[in-house]
Specification:
The protein is of the alpha+beta class and 822 residues long. The chain has 24 helices and 20 strands. α2 runs antiparallel to α3 and α14 crosses α15. The two termini are 95 Å apart.
Length: 822
């Protein structure tokens, strides 16, 4: 359910994102900016041009069609008018013939013999087969006729007859079963009528309107259609029974058919009536037809009707389309040319940028094999240069004005071309004119030159770093990432070297080095062994995992077991897991490395660490930097060791190697405040060898020195490593016991005295003797509130032990102090 609810929101978000991308010009691609957008604008311009041309062409076409319709209307009206005149003349002629005839009675059939030849001649002359006459008596009843055309809605009123006799309404348009007809009337009057019946009459000449209209000379695109508005339903039924009502295609429209059509020029009432007569008329109007309606009065009752001139405008539409195409063709050709030109240059630009991207990415890995294609115009061929020191002379494919000319990229070689003395600038040089192309060509030359200079720079940088890091030179020079990483490491190494300049002890150095190994190199398992060559022992300077054995138990017990220390060379388990029997690591998961740190020509330290096998490639270069750190530290540690050795010699008695009075003073200064703060009990024992002068006098000073050394050795066996033994002067020694239980110092002193008494001392001459010591004991803060006071009291107790017989231990008591101040 949640997914269904999320889909519309995701769709809306996607649409909104795409819309924002479309509306934000900065997100458009090059194709969108330089092809799609201009193409869209050009297409809009072309469309507007076509629409404007079409609009003006429509106006011109409509004007032309209207003029054609007006011309055809005038032609039709003129023909109708002329034929009505012909009919009027014909009717007048016939009435005149009848008036002048000797016929006494116009109702006789002999009148046909007089009128028919005249009518036939007029038919032949005007090609009117429907032309005929009707002779009416005074009551408007036909008495003779040559036309069978029946007129609907005939008006026989006396007013109508009177108007015809008086010469009014002698021309009419009427409706018959076969269509509209033209009619002309003429009155017949006789001066001496034979009888009352022959007082006079009316002669009518009529002809079908369609036949008259067929003689109109119009274009092949024009048709003439008659139309009438009927009001009487009976007339409609009669008309529909005796006429053909149809809607035919324009090409099949014939003037011989009754086809009721309407146009916009008709009034609404006429259109509705015509549509009711023939409902299919509505579908006969389309956009390819134009209409012109010529109104006619039908009969004297003013019925509406007329002639519809139909003009096929498809030809004009075709002509209009052709004219529009002719008008838009130049714009279309220009637009297509511009689009193709844009596409060509855009494709060229995209090809350049794609190649540029590939070259730049390859250069990051120091791969400069891919370059832009360059022309083959060489300044050596054009100028015949003989400067053998010029880089262009050595490599003619280089672009001279970007290498040694006034536009050279490298400042070191800029303006070094010898031909600048002649041309002043590269722009005046013929080679420049031949090689300088458009912006893309120029960028190709610049990129090629930059890649060459960049390649030289990376090669020099790689060689320099190899010399600094003392790595081997190979054919594959480091990439930008390699150089950046090594420069960063060198910067850290420089910073580290600056930081350790002010260190005061080895411990500070080891703390900083441990921090570097953990944070810079991300080492997890490592240990630093400190080698003491004089004592032939190895100790741990710092250890990441003291609880793990590594090889500590082996090499600290016997330093010669360490191969790295013994051979003074770097060893690892990468290629040979059994190279050293004391690697002590899981070879399926880790590699073990041991790097000796050379000090003064011999191994001073051994740094051992493990890395996961899967990360060996990541540590390959880092091991070089680790070695560099160790090399950087070697002289610092050597100096600190020498300082420590000097301090140690200054703080110890050279004969017995026990601490001296100088060390005692520094010790009291540093340790006494701590003892006061923590309220610890400190035991002080002052010991003196009994009758030591006799040994010197009897056996010599060398024997005395041997006795002192043996005495120190015995006392060291009886004290803790945290206890101090100080040669206070001559054969007198001071023992300091930090953090002891109160009143336990006397027991320790007696234990030492007994051990010395039992020890057999071998003199240099081989003789064996026994010696005793006297001891005075005092405790801080039980016997005094300062170390010096307690030492003084221990010396007082020692004096008392010697005074009372020697070879004994005396604990200081207040009664032993005879001075006023206690």
């Amino acid at each position: 359910m949640t997914k269904l609810n999320e889909r519309p929101s995701e769709l809306i978000h996607k649409i909104r994102s795409n819309l924002d991308k479309f509306l934000t010009a900065s997100n458009w691609s090059l194709t969108s900016r330089f092809l799609y957008l201009p193409t869209t604008l050009l297409c809009i311009f072309l469309l507007v041009t076509i629409l404007v041309a079409s609009h003006f062409q429509d106006i011109n076409t409509k004007k032309y069609i209207q003029s054609e319709l007006k011309h055809d209307s005038r032609e039709v009206q003129l023909v109708i008018k002329n034929f009505l005149q012909i009919l009027s003349v014909e009717a007048t002629v016939l009435s005149t013939i009848i008036k002048t005839s000797d016929t006494e009675n116009i109702a006789t059939t002999a009148i046909d013999d007089i009128l028919v030849p005249v009518i036939n001649q007029t038919r032949l002359d005007n090609n009117l087969t429907s032309l005929g006459y009707i002779l009416y008596d005074n009551n408007y009843k036909p008495i003779a006729q040559s036309s069978n055309i029946k007129v609907h809605d005939e008006d026989h009123s006396p007013a109508r007859i009177q108007s015809i006799v008086q010469g009014r309404n002698h021309q009419l348009v009427s409706m018959s079963s076969n269509g509209l007809i033209l009619r002309a009337f003429s009155a017949i009057t006789k001066n001496n009528p034979v009888s009352e019946k022959s007082k006079g009459g009316i002669i009518e000449v009529r002809v079908m309107l369609n036949e008259v209209l067929s003689s109109v000379s119009l274009g092949p695109e024009t048709r003439i259609i008659t139309a009438v508005m009927l009001e009487d339903t009976q007339e409609k039924n009669v008309l529909q029974k005796n006429t053909t009502l149809c809607c035919q295609p324009f090409d099949s429209l014939q003037t011989s058919h009754w086809i009721f059509q309407y146009s916009a020029s008709m009034d609404n009432q006429l259109r509705e009536l015509l549509a009711q007569i023939n409902p299919c008329i509505k579908s006969s109007i389309d956009d390819t037809t134009a209409f012109q309606f010529i109104p006619l009065e039908i009969n004297s009752n003013q019925k509406k009707g007329g002639i519809v001139i139909v003009l096929d405008t498809s030809k004009y539409t075709t002509i209009k389309t052709i004219q529009i195409l002719k008008t838009a063709a130049p714009s279309f050709i220009i637009t297509a040319f511009i689009i193709l030109l844009l596409y060509f240059y855009l494709n060229r630009l995209k090809t350049f940028l794609t190649r540029l991207k590939k070259i730049i990415i390859a250069s990051h890995s120091n791969d400069f094999a891919d370059r832009f294609e360059s022309d083959h115009v060489y300044c050596l061929d054009v100028l015949h240069c003989q400067n053998e020191k010029c880089p262009v002379y050595q490599n003619p494919s280089l672009v001279c004005y970007l290498e040694t000319g006034s536009e050279a990229i490298s400042p070191a070689w800029r303006n070094t071309c010898i031909f600048l003395n002649k041309y002043n600038t590269c722009q005046n040089c013929p080679v420049y004119a031949m090689r300088k192309g458009d912006e893309i060509s120029e960028m190709r030359n610049v990129i090629n030159t930059m890649m060459r200079l960049w390649s030289v720079f990376l090669i020099k940088s790689g060689n320099l770093l190899s010399e600094v890091l003392r790595t081997s030179h190979d054919s594959s020079h480091p990439s930008l990432d390699d150089i950046a990483m090594r420069l960063e490491q060198m910067a850290k190494l420089t910073s580290f070297s600056r930081d350790i300049r002010g260190v005061a002890s080895k411990e500070e150095v080891y703390n900083q080095l441990r921090y570097i190994f953990e944070n810079t190199f991300s080492l997890t398992y490592f240990i630093m062994f400190e080698v003491n060559s004089s004592d032939n022992r190895m100790t741990s300077a710092f250890d990441s995992h003291p609880e793990l054995s590594f090889c500590k138990a082996n090499v600290m017990l016997n330093p010669e077991r360490c191969r790295a220390k013994r051979m003074s060379e770097e060893i690892s388990s990468v290629n040979n897991p059994v190279l050293c029997p004391y690697f002590n690591c899981d070879h399926s998961k880790y590699y073990r490395f041991c790097i000796p740190q050379i000090m003064g020509g011999q191994t001073g330290n051994v740094f051992s660490f493990m890395i996961p096998k899967m990360e060996l490639n990541n540590y390959t270069d880092q091991i070089i930097i680790i070695r560099k750190y160790l090399e950087e530290l070697a002289p610092i540690l050597t100096s600190l060791r020498l300082i420590d050795a000097s301090k140690e010699q200054a703080m110890r008695d050279p004969l017995t190697h026990s601490h001296n009075r100088r060390f005692l003073n520094e010790y009291i200064e540093q340790y006494e405040p701590l003892a006061k703060r923590e309220q610890k009990t400190i035991g002080f024992i002052m010991a003196d060898l009994d009758f030591f002068k006799q040994v010197n006098d009897q056996y010599g000073h060398q024997a005395g020195d041997s006795v002192l050394k043996e005495l120190v050795a015995v006392m060291k066996k009886e004290i803790r490593s945290s206890d101090l033994l100080v040669r206070y002067g001559g054969e007198e020694f001071l023992l300091i016991f930090p953090n002891v239980e109160e009143n336990s110092s006397e027991i320790l002193a007696e234990k030492i005295r007994t051990s010395v008494e039992k020890t057999e001392i071998t003199l240099p001459n081989g003789e064996k003797i026994h010696k005793t010591i006297s001891l005075g004991v005092a405790e801080y803060p039980t016997n005094g509130d300062s170390f010096y006071k307690v030492i003084k009291f221990a010396d007082v107790a020692l004096y008392e032990a010697k005074k009372t017989g020697r070879n004994r231990t005396i604990r200081f008591t207040p009664d032993l102090w005879t001075e006023e101040d206690y």
